[in-house]
Amino acid sequence: MSELLEIQRRVAAAVMHPLTRQETMPRRRSNGVSNTAEADALIKPNDRLTSFERLEIYNRQYWFRLYSSFEEDFPGLMAIVGRRKFDTLMRAYLTDFPSASFTLRNLGSHLEQWLTEHPEHIEPRKNLAMDMVRLEWAHIEVFDSAVEPLIDPDDLSELHDGSQLRLQPYLRFLELRYPVDDLIIEVRSEGGSSDGSSNNASISRKHRKVRHIASLAPEEIHLAVHRHENSVYYKRLHREEYRLLTTLSTGETISEAIDMAFAESAIPEEERAPFLQAAFQTWSSLGWFIR
Amino acid sequence: MPANRFNSFTEYGVGIGLRIPHYHHILSEKPVVDWFEIISENYMVDGGRPLQVLDQILEQYNVVQHGVSMYFGSASNPDPEHLKKLKRLVKRTKTPWLSDHLCWGSVDGRYTHDLLPMPYTWEAVKITADRIRNVQDFLEIPVVVENVSSYAEYHASEMTEWEFINEVVEKADCGILLDVNNIYVSSQNHNFDPFTYVNAVPADRIAQIHIAGHSKFEKYILDTHDHPVLEPVWQLYARTIERAGPTATLLEWDDNIPSFEEVHAEALKANQFLQAAAKPAVPQLTEVAR
Ligand SMILES: [Fe+2]
Predict the structure, then answer these.
(1) Model pTM?
(2) Tally of domains within chain B
């Protein structure tokens, strides 16, 4: 093996290993390896710092950068579970799923899946927390996903029952058990935002203000997370609209999507045509249909 | 006329980093700025606000791309998808050159998102130089590499940092983005004379200069980019310009970002050094004859 690769693997193992509760580098790793011995073997000391202390600067910097990105992405989850539980959750998740991408934007991409396997981190408010995570991840994806050219008005007017309609790749549809859309708007308006990737160093952990959410009554919500003039918005949908859109997005025809939409609907037959017309009108004006 | 063969950007002047808190001011006030440096990774996305703002900036300003995740010194291979996205952005911005750091930060597909220092070994010289050449060939634009600030040194090192950078840029045949703040920070952390470093790098390869502020802690200095430029850094800057001639210069300010005007005014202090360096020693005959 190349010596460079070996050094980099050993340094990365130290740098990416979780910090202690006091945010210091542990003397010994969870697998028993001594960080003191590794630091001494790899890093020169100087007149002010030991090898261990020099390596620790990078260990702390790594975690503070990840914390800050993750906290910025999931302030709603933090508000629901509280800072202490959030900290534990964040460390455990980022240990299982360190960044595998050149951008920190994708840091939370496995969070929903991971939480289904580790529900202890979000008990007793599991459903509320899961809904929030799904919404917060959708928000990240909708923010910078691709936009496609809109369908021609002529093509739109020629659609028939057997046609398919393609939707903007940035759209996400969520079926939620709690009104987390209202909650996240409150939470976000209290926090700031930062500048994405940068190349400066930071030694202290920046703490976000967090307000603990006492309780929230359950409510069935269907939501479109979408973009208008490049800002992310949440648009509540009727259950029928949600079913119609999610069916269309799987590539089914318009008539199949309509059947699906009204399968268990309380909307009377005679109101369905105007209902559909209004819905399509709105979505088309929002630019959701593409060529 | 270019000051040297790697520096075709003598007339580029003084730029500042494009940062989100300044978007509104820049787009509404349209201040005169020589150029903006963007962090490539913030715009390597498929759509949305980042690209919209970038396109608006590109309509009115020169933009140069600066990356933070190429990791020229990483022993494991780069993600081809990353390079493709970067090339797409290069085509969009028409950046005249592209910079990233002489460091490593990922291994076996895991990313630290940090600029980790290299062991200064001959093996690392070869791996890093090969990587730079490959990236330059793929992107089809000049690539320049930036020295990072560091807080640790390896037992494995076989040469000084400036010897390492010299070997790498010779073998890769590329330019240097000399960050004089990083040199100062490292000189304090590793007890060397920063002027030895500045005087040792090949002046004809200096394509761009970074200046920035840093923070002093009890036992080390950290590259925080959250202050005005400090006096010793200006001195290193002046010496660099003296050796390399007028060179595209950029102020980095990434934390506790003040108003646009404040950042810009700090950056423009570089002009006094640039103008002094540009002044010919002897009055030009054409001027006299006119
Ligand atoms: Fe820099």
Answers:
(1) 0.92
(2) 1
